[in-house]
Amino acid sequence: MIGERIKSLREKKGYSITKLADLAGVSKSYLSYIERNVQNNPSLQVLAKIAYHLDTNMEYLLGEELAPKVSVEDVLDEEWHSILRDAVDEGMSSGDFRALKDLVRSHKWKDEGLVPGKKKTSNIIILHIDH
């Protein structure tokens, strides 16, 4: 499964096996073994390098059914640009955005255990600490 996902994403990006191997810093033969499922247990370090250059994440490569990362241009309409500009103008840093993203991800993880059909509620509290 890992190899199939890597090959599919590589082909969608238009990369040859040589190009991706060079970008990720792995040998062409090793990448070929992964794609053909001859090597089906690559290290997390190798997967991280490959995932980075395929604009995806290791979770997707490992078989989670999450879609690969989407290009920023595909999602950011004018409303998103406006929200981001306002946040930056108000002093929000990239670290703040990362912390907020991690908080939302953590909250979604907790909600996955809810009973089917039960309405999900949000109890996210945002704390801003000035340094």
From TrEMBL:
One GO MF term: DNA-binding transcription factor activity
Ranges where the HTH cro/C1-type domain occurs: 6-61
Keyword hit for RNA-binding: no
Coiled-coil annotated spans: none
Keywords attached to this entry: DNA-binding
InterPro entries: Cro/C1-type_HTH, Lambda_DNA-bd_dom_sf, TransReg_Diox_bact_type
Cited Pfam families: HTH_3
Domain of life per record: Bacteria
GO cellular component terms, semicolon-separated: cytosol
Signal peptide bounds: none
Record-given protein name: HTH cro/C1-type domain-containing protein
Lineage, highest ranks first: Bacteria, Bacillati, Bacillota, Bacilli, Bacillales
